C-alpha cells in the first residue's frame, strides 16, 4: 500500500481567508493524483485529476499544483466561504494503476 | 447529471450473517470499485472490476468478500460472514478509465455489525 500523507489534519479559517493544504506521496510508478471534496452525508466529489509534473488546475476559487519529482501536490482555496467546509481528500494511483490510495484528508471549517 | 447510487444507505447485521451491498454505476463507465472507510481511518481500496473480472484487489479483500455484476446495471459486494471489524462505510465508485479519469463515488452504505 502506498503511503499518501495529508496536512494539516484539520483547519479552521474565517470567511474570506485563503488557505492551502498539502498532499505528499511516493513518486515512483506515478500516473495520476486526484483531489476530492467530501461533504458530510454526501459522496466524495472529484475536483481535479492531475498527471503531469508542473500541472496546475483551477476550478473557480480552488486550484491545485503537482510536483511529481518530489511527490507533492498543493490545494489552494482563495477567499474561503462557509460552503467550502468539507474534508478534502487526495489520492494517488496504486502501482497497478487500477486503485486509488487515499490520504486521511484535511477537514476544513470556514466560519462566517 | 449521472450519478452512482448505492443501496441500502444503512445496514445493521448480526455477526456471522451475510450481507449484500448494491450499487448502480454510471452507465457508460467500464471500471467499478469498492472502497471502505472505517471510522477515523483512511478510505481504503477493496477491489476493482473490469470486463466481468477482478482487475485488482487489496489484502483486505479476502475469501469472505466477493463481487458480482449480475446484470447490465448492478454491481454488488457480498460479505459472507460478517465480523465486527467489517463495520464501516462502504463506497462504490465507477470510472471510464483509471487512473487518469475521475472516479465517481456513491453516497455509501454504512454497515454496522453487531
Shape of chain B: globular
**Rg value of chain B:** 13 Å
Residue share in helices of chain B? under 10%
Low-confidence stretches of chain A: none
Q: Which class of secondary structure composition applies to the elements of chain A?
A: mainly beta
Taken as a percent bin, the fraction of beta residues of chain A is over 45%
Overall geometry of chain A: globular
Distance between the termini of chain B: 37 Å
Helix content of chain A: under 10%
Would you tell me the overall average pLDDT of chain A? Answer: 95
For the biggest sheet of chain A, the summary is: 6 strands, mixed
Q: What percentage of amino acids of chain B are in beta strands? A: over 45%
Could you tell me which chain pair has the largest interface and how many residues each side has?
A-B, 27 and 28 residues
Structural class per helix/strand content of chain B?
Answer: mainly beta
Order of helices and strands of chain A: EEEEEEEEEEE
Total number of helices of chain A = 0
Structure description:
- The complex is a heterodimer of chains A (112) and B (114).
- Chain A has 112 residues and is mostly beta strands.
- In chain A, 0% of the residues lie in helices and 53% in strands.
- In chain A, strands 2, 4, 5, 9, 10 and 11 form a six-stranded mixed beta sheet that branches.
- Chain A is globular and about 45 Å long.
- Chain B is mainly β.
- Chain B is built from no helices and eleven strands.
- Chain B has strands at residues 5-7, 10-13, 19-24, 31-37, 43-50, 53-57, 65-68, 75-79, 88-95, 104-105, 109-113.
- In chain B, a hairpin with a 5-residue loop joins strand 4 (31-37) and strand 5.
- The radius of gyration of chain B is 13 Å and the shape is globular.
List the keywords.
heterodimer; A: 112 residues; mainly beta; six-stranded mixed beta sheet; 0% helix; globular; B: 114 residues; seven-stranded mixed beta sheet; four-stranded antiparallel beta sheet
Amino acid at each position: 500500500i502506498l503511503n499518501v500523507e495529508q496536512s494539516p489534519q484539520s483547519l479552521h479559517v474565517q470567511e474570506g481567508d485563503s488557505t492551502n493544504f498539502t498532499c505528499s506521496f511516493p513518486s515512483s510508478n506515478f500516473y495520476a493524483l486526484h483531489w476530492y471534496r467530501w461533504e458530510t452525508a454526501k459522496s466524495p466529489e472529484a475536483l481535479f485529476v492531475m498527471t503531469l509534473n508542473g500541472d496546475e488546475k483551477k476550478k473557480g476559487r480552488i486550484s491545485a499544483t503537482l510536483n511529481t519529482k518530489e511527490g507533492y501536490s498543493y490545494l489552494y482555496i482563495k477567499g474561503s466561504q462557509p460552503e467550502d467546509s468539507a474534508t478534502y481528500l487526495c489520492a494517488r494511483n496504486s502501482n497497478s494503476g487500477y486503485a486509488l490510495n487515499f490520504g486521511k484528508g484535511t477537514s476544513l471549517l470556514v466560519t462566517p | 447529471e449521472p450519478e452512482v447510487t448505492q443501496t441500502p444507505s444503512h445496514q445493521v447485521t448480526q455477526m456471522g450473517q451475510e450481507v449484500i451491498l448494491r450499487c448502480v454505476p454510471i452507465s457508460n463507465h467500464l471500471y467499478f470499485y469498492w472502497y471502505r472507510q472505517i471510522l477515523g481511518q483512511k478510505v481504503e481500496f477493496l477491489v476493482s472490476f473490469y470486463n466481468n473480472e477482478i482487475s485488482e484487489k487489496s489484502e483486505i479483500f479476502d475469501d469472505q468478500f466477493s463481487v458480482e455484476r449480475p446484470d447490465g446495471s448492478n454491481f454488488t459486494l457480498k460479505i459472507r460472514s460478517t465480523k465486527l471489524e467489517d463495520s464501516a462505510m462502504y463506497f462504490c465508485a465507477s470510472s471510464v478509465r483509471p487512473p487518469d479519469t475521475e472516479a465517481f463515488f456513491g453516497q455509501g452504505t454504512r454497515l454496522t455489525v453487531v
